[in-house]
Amino acid sequence: MNVVQREADQQVVRGLVTAVSRSEGHTFSKRSEEQIRLVAGLGVEGDAHQGATVKHRSRVAQDPTQPNLRQVHLIHAELHDELRAKGYPVGAGEMGENVTTRGIDLLGLPAGTLLRIGSEAVIEVTGLRNPCPQLDRFMPGLKDQVLEQGPDGSLVRKAGIMAVVLAGGPIRPGDAITAELPPLPHRPLDRV
């Protein structure tokens, strides 16, 4: 898909939802569902990370009043393809993502990008997921597979992106995703 168009002087990128997942508990992997529901300002209904303030245990320990910039976790299915080709059989939701996508370069999106998913949901991209040691506990060596050295020597994080929910609604596999890039200059994603 990954069609880029100009609509009303704004760059638009399109993709597709391939899977949706959630977990009521603080588990690493999330169970695939037929549908999840996003709730404005909170995240994925019934997911352990739903809330206006941080829910990730390490961040709660630092400051439980921080805003939750990690309400929704997205990973591109192309990463799963790449990992499987390297001998890491990872499936949708197993790396903790709520939404698995295809055809949209999630890691290349700038901060502030709006993702319209399905007919109602709108999320705003806040940053990158920082790969953590839980990846290696799930599958030894996986963390190194989602970290690369960039041409300038910087660390490239490939474990997905995070977002906050601006407008709620249901999301299902097969739903279209439209990415609306923010005005220039674009701010690259950093870990949140």
Automatic annotation (TrEMBL):
It comes from the Bacteria. GO terms for molecular function: catalytic activity; molybdenum ion binding; pyridoxal phosphate binding. Residues 31-180 form the MOSC domain. InterPro entries: MoCF_Sase_C (IPR005302), MOSC_domain (IPR052716), Pyrv_Knase-like_insert_dom_sf (IPR011037). Gene3D superfamilies: PK beta-barrel domain-like (2.40.33.20). Pfam families: MOSC. This is MOSC domain-containing protein. It comes from Paenibacillus mucilaginosus 3016.
